[in-house]
C-alpha cells in the first residue's frame, strides 16, 4: 500500500508541476532568429592596414563596439560573439529597417583630419594628419559656439602633435572627414595647444548629437567583411515554428499511442516518463538560456523518438523474460538490469557523435548537437532510471500482477 | 507477432550484400560524374526563400526581379505560396533590398529568408563535416572495441558508413539539394543508426556466453537466433524515430525539409543495415578467426 501511495503521489505531484509550469516555461524559451525573424551575419575580421596585427583583444574590442552600435540603434538584445581567431557573429532579432542596420553596423566611422597636399584641387584634402586613434575615445560631445550654434567638440590625445600640426598649417585649411565625407574645413587661425577642436557646419541640435554619437561609437579596430548572412522575415519564422511544432506534436502523440498500445501498463509509464523528459528538456533550455533554433526543434523531436527506444528495449526484454516463465517481479528486475547495459552502450555512442559535432560545428550544427547531448543525458535519467523505478514500484505494490498488463499472452509463456 | 520459423538472416544477407554493393557503386558513379547538388550553403551565392499570401506565376516573379541588377538569370522554384530564388552570385545589400522591394510589389505580405555564403566559408563547413565524420567513427571504434571487441567495431563502422553513404548516394542520384542541415542529418544518422546495431551485438555477446560455439554452423545459428530475438526491438525503435522524422518531413518547416528527408532515408537504411549487414559481417570476420582458436584440436 505504501508503495502504491508513493507511486500515486510521485505521478500526481509531477503532473501537477508540469501542468502548471509549462505555459510559463514555453513563453520563456528563447527563440532563434530562424523562428522569430531577424538577421545573422558572420564577419571575417582583418587588420585595417595590411600587415597589421589581428589579436584576440582587438577582435574582442571590435565585437564590443559592434554591440554598442547595435544597442545604439535600438535593436533588442543584439547578440555578438567572437568565433575562432578572426570571426565575429552578430545576431539581431526583430528588426524592421534591416538594410539601415546592416549599413550602420559595417560603417567604419573613421574620423580623420586632413590637409591639402601638393597638387590637390581646391577644396580637396588628401594628406591625413590625424586618424581615429589620435582622438580621445568617446569624448565627442555637443557644444555651442560663440554664436550659440551647436558644434561637436572633440579632444586629441597628443596635444603637442596637434599643436605642431596647427602651427604648420597656420592660415591654411584643416579638413575634418568622417570616412570619406567632408564635415567641415575650417581655416587654422592660431596654434592650438589645448588639444581640443570643434566641428561646425550649421548643425541643428539633433544632427549634431547624431554626429557626436557616430564619432563616439568610433572606428572599428578591424576591417570586417560579411562571410555569411541569413535574414529571416518574422512571418516566415513564425510559420516555420508553427509547422514544426505541429509536426512534433503529431509525431509525439503517435509515438505515445504506439507505446501504450504495444506495452499496455508499462507503455503508459513510458509515456509518462517521455512527457517528463520533454518537460525537463524545456526546463533546461529556459534555465541555461539556450536559444532554440529550427534544427534545435528538429533534434528535440527526433530525440523524443530516440528517447523512447530505452523503454522499448526494456519492455521487450521484460516480455522476453516473462515468456521464458519467470515471475513478473523477477522478469521486471532482470529486464531492467540487462537492458540498462544495452541502452547505455547505444546512448554513449550517440553522445560520442554529438560531442564531435559540437566541437567541430558552427552555428546551427552546434545548436543541434547541444540539444542532442542534453536530450540523451535527460533521457538516461527519465527513460531509464525513473521509468525503471516507477515500474518496479508498481509491480511491487502488486498492481501489475498478470502478464496481460504487459501485453504478454498466457499462451506465449513457456514453462520454466 | 512472433516468428514461428526463424529466418536465416545470414543466408539472406548475401542477397542484401549484392544490393548494397550495387547501390554503392551506383552512388560512386553518380558522385564521380555528377557530384552533389549543392545549395548555397556549399556554393557561393544567395538563396532567397519567400512566403507569400497568394500564389503568383514564375513569369510575374521573373519580370518583377529583372531590375534587381544581377547580371545572370536566377533559378526560380515555385511552391504553394512560396518562391525560392537562387543566385549563383552573392547579392549585396542593395541588390537584396531591391529584390525584396520588387517582390513586395507583387505581394505586400511577403516574408523573406535570404542566405548568402561565400565559397571559402562553405568549403570550411564541408571540411569540418568530413572531420566530424572521421573523428566520430574513430570514437565509435574505440568505444565499441573496449565494450565489445574489434570485430564488432569494424562491422558496426561498415554498417554505419554504409548508411551514411547510402543517403549521400540517393541525394546524388535523385539530384536532391545538399545544404548544411544535410550534414547534420548524416551525422545524426551515424550517431543513431549504430544504436540498433549495438542492441543486436549486445545480444550476440550475451548468447556467446551461454554456449560453446565450435563450428561456423554454430556461430551462424547463434547470429540468426540473436537477430530474430532482437528483430522486433530493432523494428520498433527504428519505427518511433521514423515517425518523428516522417512528420517533420510532411508537416515541418520548409528549411528543414531536406534534413527530414535525409533522416527518413538514413533511418530506413540504418534499420536495414543493422539487421542484414552488421551481424553477418561480424560472422564473416569471426569465421576467419576460427582457425586461430582451434589451433591444436588434434591433440585433444
Please, could you describe this protein's structure?
Chain A has helices spanning 2-28, 33-36, 56-72, 98-106, 159-168, 205-217, 234-288, 294-323, 328-360, 363-396, and strands at residues 30-31, 38-47, 76-83, 87-93, 111-115, 127-130, 141-144, 150-155, 175-178, 181-184, 196-199, 222-232, 291-292. The model of chain A has no long low-confidence stretch (mean pLDDT 83). Chain A folds into three domains: 2-30 and 233-412, Multidrug efflux transporter AcrB transmembrane fold (Up-down Bundle), CATH 1.20.1640.10; 34-108 and 223-231, Alpha-Beta Plaits; 111-219, 2-Layer Sandwich (Gyrase A, domain 2). Chain A is rod-shaped. In chain A, strand 3 and strand 4 form a beta hairpin. In chain A, helix 8 (294-323) runs antiparallel to helix 9 and helix 8 (294-323) packs parallel to helix 10 (363-396). Chain A has 416 residues and is α+β, with helices and mostly antiparallel strands. Helix content of chain A is 56%, strand content 17%. By secondary structure, chain B is α+β, with helices and mostly antiparallel strands. Chain B folds into two domains: 9-38 and 121-295, Multidrug efflux transporter AcrB transmembrane domain (Multidrug efflux transporter AcrB transmembrane fold), CATH 1.20.1640.10; 45-117, 2-Layer Sandwich (Alpha-Beta Plaits). Chain B is elongated, with a radius of gyration of 25 Å. Mean pLDDT of chain B is 84; it is low at 292-300. Chains A and B meet through helix 4, strand 12, helix 7, helix 8 and helix 9 of A and strand 2, helix 3, strand 5, helix 4 and helix 6 of B. Chain A: Residues 60-116 form the Protein translocase subunit SecDF P1 domain. Chain A: The chain crosses the membrane at residues 245-263, 268-288, 294-313, 343-362, 368-395. Chain A: It is a multi-pass membrane protein.
Amino acid at each position: 500500500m505504501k508503495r502504491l501511495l508513493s507511486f500515486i503521489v510521485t505521478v500526481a505531484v509531477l503532473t501537477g508541476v508540469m501542468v502548471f509550469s509549462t505555459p510559463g516555461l514555453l513563453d520563456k524559451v528563447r527563440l532563434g532568429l530562424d523562428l522569430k525573424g531577424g538577421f545573422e551575419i558572420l564577419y571575417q575580421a582583418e587588420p585595417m592596414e595590411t600587415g597589421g596585427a589581428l589579436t584576440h583583444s582587438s577582435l574582442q574590442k571590435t565585437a564590443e563596439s559592434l554591440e554598442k552600435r547595435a544597442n545604439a540603434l535600438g535593436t533588442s538584445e543584439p547578440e555578438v560573439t567572437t568565433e575562432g581567431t578572426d570571426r565575429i557573429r552578430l545576431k539581431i532579432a526583430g528588426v524592421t529597417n534591416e538594410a539601415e542596420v546592416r549599413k550602420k553596423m559595417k560603417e567604419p566611422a573613421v574620423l580623420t583630419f586632413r590637409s591639402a597636399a601638393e597638387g590637390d584641387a581646391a577644396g580637396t584634402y588628401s594628406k591625413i594628419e590625424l586618424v581615429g586613434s589620435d582622438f580621445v575615445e568617446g569624448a565627442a560631445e555637443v557644444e555651442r559656439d560663440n554664436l550659440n550654434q551647436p558644434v561637436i567638440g572633440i579632444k586629441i590625445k597628443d596635444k603637442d602633435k596637434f599643436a605642431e600640426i596647427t602651427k604648420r598649417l597656420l592660415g591654411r585649411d584643416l579638413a575634418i572627414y568622417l570616412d570619406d565625407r567632408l564635415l567641415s574645413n575650417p581655416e587654422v587661425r592660431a596654434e592650438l595647444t589645448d588639444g581640443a577642436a570643434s566641428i561646425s557646419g550649421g548643425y541643428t541640435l539633433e544632427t549634431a548629437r547624431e554626429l557626436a554619437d557616430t564619432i563616439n561609437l568610433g572606428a572599428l579596430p578591424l576591417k570586417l567583411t560579411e562571410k555569411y548572412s541569413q535574414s529571416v522575415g518574422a512571418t516566415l519564422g513564425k510559420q516555420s515554428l508553427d509547422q514544426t511544432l505541429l509536426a512534433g506534436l503529431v509525431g509525439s502523440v503517435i509515438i505515445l499511442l504506439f507505446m501504450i498500445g504495444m506495452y499496455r501498463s508499462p507503455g503508459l509509464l513510458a509515456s509518462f516518463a517521455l512527457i517528463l523528459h520533454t518537460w525537463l528538456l524545456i526546463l533546461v533550455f529556459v534555465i541555461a538560456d539556450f536559444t532554440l533554433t529550427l534544427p534545435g526543434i528538429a533534434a528535440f523531436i527526433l530525440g523524443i523518438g530516440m528517447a523512447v527506444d530505452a523503454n522499448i528495449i526494456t519492455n521487450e526484454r521484460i516480455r522476453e523474460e516473462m515468456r521464458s516463465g519467470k515471475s513478473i517481479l523477477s522478469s521486471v528486475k532482470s529486464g531492467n538490469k540487462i537492458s540498462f547495459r544495452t541502452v547505455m552502450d547505444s546512448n554513449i555512442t550517440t553522445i560520442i557523435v554529438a560531442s564531435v559535432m559540437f566541437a567541430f560545428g558552427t552555428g546551427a550544427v552546434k545548436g543541434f548537437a547541444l540539444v542532442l547531448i542534453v536530450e540523451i543525458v535527460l533521457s538516461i535519467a527519465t527513460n531509464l532510471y525513473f521509468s525503471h523505478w516507477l515500474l518496479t514500484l508498481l509491480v511491487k505494490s502488486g498492481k501489475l500482477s498478470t502478464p496481460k498488463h504487459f501485453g504478454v499472452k498466457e499462451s506465449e509463456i513457456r514453462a520454466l | 507477432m512472433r516468428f514461428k520459423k526463424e529466418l536465416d538472416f545470414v543466408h539472406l544477407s548475401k542477397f542484401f550484400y549484392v544490393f548494397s554493393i550495387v547501390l554503392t557503386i551506383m552512388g560512386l558513379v553518380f558522385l564521380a560524374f555528377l557530384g552533389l547538388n549543392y545549395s548555397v550553403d556549399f556554393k557561393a551565392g544567395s538563396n532567397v526563400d519567400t512566403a507569400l499570401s497568394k500564389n503568383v506565376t514564375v513569369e510575374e516573379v521573373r519580370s518583377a526581379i529583372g531590375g534587381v541588377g544581377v547580371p545572370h538569370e536566377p533559378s526560380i522554384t515555385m511552391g504553394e505560396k512560396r518562391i525560392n530564388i537562387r543566385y549563383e552570385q552573392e547579392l549585396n545589400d542593395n541588390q537584396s533590398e531591391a529584390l525584396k522591394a520588387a517582390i513586395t510589389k507583387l505581394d505586400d505580405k511577403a516574408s523573406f529568408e535570404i542566405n548568402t555564403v561565400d565559397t571559402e566559408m562553405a568549403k570550411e563547413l564541408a571540411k569540418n563535416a568530413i572531420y566530424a565524420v572521421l573523428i566520430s567513427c574513430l570514437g565509435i571504434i574505440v568505444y565499441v572495441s573496449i565494450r565489445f571487441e574489434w570485430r564488432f567495431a569494424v562491422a558496426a563502422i561498415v554498417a554505419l558508413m554504409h548508411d551514411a553513404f547510402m543517403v549521400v548516394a540517393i541525394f546524388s542520384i535523385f539530384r536532391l539539394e545538399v545544404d548544411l542541415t544535410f550534414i547534420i542529418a548524416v551525422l545524426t544518422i551515424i550517431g543513431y543508426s549504430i544504436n540498433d546495431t549495438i542492441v543486436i551485438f549486445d545480444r550476440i555477446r550475451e548468447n556467446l556466453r551461454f554456449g560453446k560455439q565450435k563450428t561456423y554452423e554454430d556461430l551462424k545459428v547463434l547470429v540468426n537466433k540473436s537477430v530474430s530475438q532482437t528483430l522486433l526491438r530493432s523494428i520498433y525503435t527504428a519505427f518511433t524515430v521514423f515517425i518523428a522524422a516522417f512528420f517533420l518531413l510532411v508537416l515541418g518547416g520548409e528549411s528543414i525539409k531536406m534534413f527530414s528527408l535525409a533522416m527518413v532515408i538514413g533511418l530506413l537504411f540504418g534499420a536495414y543495415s543493422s539487421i542484414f549487414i552488421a551481424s553477418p559481417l561480424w560472422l564473416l570476420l569471426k569465421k576467419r578467426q576460427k582457425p586461430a582458436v582451434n589451433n591444436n584440436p588434434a591433440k585433444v
